[in-house]
Amino acid sequence: MENKRTRNGRDRQGAGRATTNQPSSTRRATASEVRAQDRYARSRYGAQPANPTKRTATSQPAADDAAAQRLSRDEYAKTHKHKKHGKLFYAGIAALAVVLIGAGAAFAYVQVLSGNLHAGLGNVGQYLVKTNMTKEPFYMLLMGTDGSAERDESGDFGDSYRTDSIMLARIDPVGKKVTLVSLHRDTMVDMGEYGVNKLNAAHVFGGPALSVQTVSRLAGVDISHYAEINFDGFHEIVDALGGIEVDVPMTIDDEDAGGHLDAGLQTLNGDQALILCRARHAYDEIGPGDEYRAANQRLVISAIAKKLLSADAASMASTVQALSKYVTTDLGVTDIIGLAQAMQGLDPSTDIYSAMEPTTSEYIDGVWYEINNTAEWKAMMKRVDSGLPPTDGDVVDKTSGTILATTGDGGATSAGTAGDGTGAVKRGGTVAIRNGNGVSGAGFDATERIQGLGYSVNTSNADNFDYRETLVVYNDPADKEAAEAIVKALGVGKAEQNANTYLFEEDFLIVLGADWQ
Fold first, then answer.
1. Residue 339 within a domain
2. What gap in Å lies between CA 9 and CA 11, rounded to an integer?
3. How far is 208 from 102, CA to CA, in rounded Å?
4. Domain that holds residue 160
5. Above 70 in pLDDT, residue 424?
6. Left if phi > 0, otherwise alpha if psi is -120 to 50, otherwise beta: which for 514?
């Protein structure tokens, strides 16, 4: 009988195991596949053997594994606390470095990477849906892996090993926006012939190719590019930039993460930034550590992006050299140069959105899983796919001060007023949208964008359809900044104070002109 209870927020480890009988396979597994799956299942991060051609409900782990399973989570952590932890790095740095550095630096970057840029990609190209990456938005799967210190513990088999950080990035070279959505590594997913497993097991069973397929199905979007980075290079990248400025949400004391970190605005070196990105147990009394860790990762990514934009030639060269040792991607030389040129002008303080996959935690058949909240997830991805921030507003944990989702604050600081992706303050105000160009349905997209800023909206037609330029009109001089932020959200038009020309009761009036398409 299935054993299920609500998770208490404690730590989870590993890529998980198959917990249901596998569906019939359309092919027989090769001998090497069977051996890899059995080795994975016997590791401390797996459980029952995952043989695609034969599974039994009575399979039992060996005696040593059974003893290990009886260890409590705290006992297990104590057993391994003195071992070097290489459990985390996130691939967002790789993607942002690619899109933020200038064309000259990008060329130097790919020259250095020429020998190993595509190493380990396998057949992932078969599952990537190509787009015109300089002229239309696309999705990129970003994976952070541990390729050294703990591979003996992590279910590593050959070139396939677990991933500790998984992000789906939407990159818009036209709107110059980047959206980062962190996915729980423990999300329960159906991997077909490999059965039901945790999301990060995809890399073990099928490398980049299976990871792309699995995340694409989960998110309901086509993935066009892939980037993978090893944690080993993290401190080198940060140090090459001369450190990064981050407002640390709360004091961290976490031996497993590497030590102590004070709260507050400060410049972090590579080792300190790694502590912030790895810390989970520091949040044990607050909530699920993985969510806070993922939020901190996005915080650091934005800080690195900001530093990259202002780096001098020497710092950029050092950073490129550090990146070159640890990045694997399908992007080619011309791709990287073209994308770098297209993304010039991105402002990390307003143009980077982020969020975490909405899930609930459950303990099923002896394994902790994150269960995707389907309705919330679909709503989030609909917003992401339309170019809006993933959430209506910033999600800030009141206890720790950590920003769990940002709509444009950029993540370099967790203090201050919640951002909205454009600099507008969330005020719960009202907006009247009037169609002044005569195009049917013109107000629909505008309404979605303005509602995404936190306003209530009503729509109607203007007094005529001859408006050439979109107007954002305000009565109170104090609303000028918010009106200008609305203009930025729309992407066209101008803000102007009402000179008794327009009659409206709302806080703002938007008249859509011929420039609104």
1. yes
2. 7
3. 28
4. 92-243+310-387
5. no
6. alpha
